[in-house]
């Protein structure tokens, strides 16, 4: 490697250096930085889709109120969107960077964010859209979940136990899963349980998140195992069976 002074002396001695034609573009054009992603940023497919409000459902957008966020020490002004229908009422909190437009004539709701380039705003755009769409469907039609009990002697029943209830009319799911005692689980408020068959449990409610959380608690008592296929299955859940272990 020649020093700058040696390179100048060599140039005066030999004259100007001529580069081969295939090296000229590499020295003339500045180095280009490689982009991490070649795709252009686009809007959220869910967030940009309008939500239709069916007849009988009322949407109320509240004023911003300062609330303390559980994930940070800051106090953030959030708005509460209330969705009321024939089956009940649900409330959804909207972050301050999100804008909600409700057209009463066409009965459609549009969600938008301040800056689509910010990752958090774009993520919450689709998330809040899914929550709002789920709430609208819940208060108008309701959500259902079916649990299937697969196993010899597995039984389920729904009973009322006035001495143990936490609120008037509370139901209790009683499971017989091969233990020495039956498993009794209180049904959360806002969820209706029934047993159309001895091996089926039907859950109905307006809040899909609470209903699936309760279904997961029931499933934990007998998680489906892959050798005999026994357990508690939620909705269309399936499991791939394994071959038996041969000693």
UniProtKB/TrEMBL annotation:
- Domain Large ribosomal subunit protein uL6 alpha-beta, residue spans: 76-142, 150-232
- Residue stretches of biased makeup (Polar residues): 33-46
Gene Ontology terms: cellular component: mitochondrial large ribosomal subunit
One Pfam family name is Ribosomal_L6
- Keywords noted in UniProt: Ribonucleoprotein, Ribosomal protein
UniProt cross-references to SUPFAM superfamilies, sorted A to Z: Ribosomal protein L6 (SSF56053)
Report the superkingdom from the record. Eukaryota
State the residue spans of region: Disordered: 33-53
Q: Name one GO molecular function term.
A: rRNA binding
Q: Does the keyword Ribosomal protein apply?
A: yes
Among its keywords, does the record have Transcription?
Answer: no
Q: Which GO terms describe its biological process?
A: translation
The text of the family note is: Belongs to the universal ribosomal protein uL6 family.
> Per its record, how is this protein called by name?
Ribosomal protein L6, alpha-beta domain-containing protein
């Amino acid at each position: 490697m020649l020093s700058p002074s040696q390179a100048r002396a060599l140039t005066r001695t030999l004259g100007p250096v001529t580069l081969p034609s295939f090296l000229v573009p590499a020295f003339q054009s500045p180095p280009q930085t490689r982009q991490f992603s070649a795709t252009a940023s686009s809007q959220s497919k869910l967030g940009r889709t309008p939500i239709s409000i069916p007849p009988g459902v009322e949407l109320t957008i509240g004023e911003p109120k300062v609330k303390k966020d559980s994930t940070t020490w800051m106090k953030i002004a959030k708005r509460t969107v209330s969705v009321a229908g024939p089956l009940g009422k649900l409330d959804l909190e909207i972050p301050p960077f999100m804008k909600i437009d409700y057209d009463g004539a066409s009965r459609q709701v549009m969600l938008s964010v301040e800056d689509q380039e910010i990752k958090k705003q774009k993520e919450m755009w689709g998330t809040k859209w899914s929550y709002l769409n789920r709430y609208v469907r819940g208060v108008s039609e309701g959500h259902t979940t079916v649990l299937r009990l697969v196993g010899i002697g597995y039984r389920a029943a729904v009973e009322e136990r006035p001495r143990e209830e936490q609120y008037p009319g509370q139901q209790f799911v009683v499971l017989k899963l091969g233990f020495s005692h039956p498993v009794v689980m209180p049904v959360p408020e806002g969820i209706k349980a029934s047993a159309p068959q001895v091996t089926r449990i039907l859950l109905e409610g307006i809040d899909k998140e609470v209903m699936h959380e309760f279904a997961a608690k029931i499933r934990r008592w007998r998680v489906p195992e892959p050798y005999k296929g026994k357990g508690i299955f939620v909705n269309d859940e399936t499991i791939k069976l394994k071959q038996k272990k041969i000693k």
